[in-house]
């Protein structure tokens, strides 16, 4: 955590990815990082503002975001989509968590990283969740790492098509096509 704080003072652009790596490798938890921030802020440590901004951007506190979710959010921004609700509880008893949800379009997007969604039990749970979403008359789109990272243009086009089919809000896409999930245009 100290290295992350030190890095945020000199290279804030790498902090979100480093933070997610730390969470996923269980080097620290969001709660421990927030406690470290509180401690360091009393000492006037440089980098605190950048680290707090990264925590806010990633939505840390409610859940620990994945690299794939972060890249998906970049893709949504590059497509001109409004910010979705994230980590929405769904189901009769709130037993499912939706990665991204746009209530105005009644559109759910799930991003499935292989490390979490590859086991037979996880796949059955994903199928059950998708079935409940469809039975509830909602739209759901699913993407994996390749779709978000390497086929962002096609994925972005599908997402825009689904969003605009479900809303009356026209979206304006940038003047170029989206290049990967970085949000840069080419």
Write up this protein:
The chain has about 190 residues and is an alpha+beta fold. It folds into two domains: about 1-60, no CATH class; about 65-185, VSR Endonuclease (Endonuclease, Chain A, 3-Layer(aba) Sandwich), CATH 3.40.960.10. About 50% of the residues lie in helices and about 15% in strands. The chain is built from nine helices and six strands. The chain has helices at about 1-10, 15-25, 30-40, 50-60, 65-80, 115, 120-135, 145-150, 150-165; strands spanning about 85-90, 95-100, 105-110, 140-145, 180, 185. The protein has a four-stranded mixed beta sheet, sandwiched between helices. A two-stranded antiparallel sheet has the order 5-6. A hairpin with a 4-residue loop joins strand 2 and strand 3 (about 105-110). It is globular, with a radius of gyration of 18 Å. The chain starts with a helix and ends with a strand.
Main beta sheet: strand number and arrangement? 4 strands, mixed
User: How far is it from the N-terminal to the C-terminal residue, by CA?
Assistant: 36 Å
Radius of gyration: 18 Å
Total E-strand runs = 6
Question: Which key terms come to mind for this protein?
Answer:
4-stranded mixed beta sheet; Endonuclease, Chain A; 186 residues; disordered C terminus; single chain; 6 strands; alpha+beta; globular; 9 helices
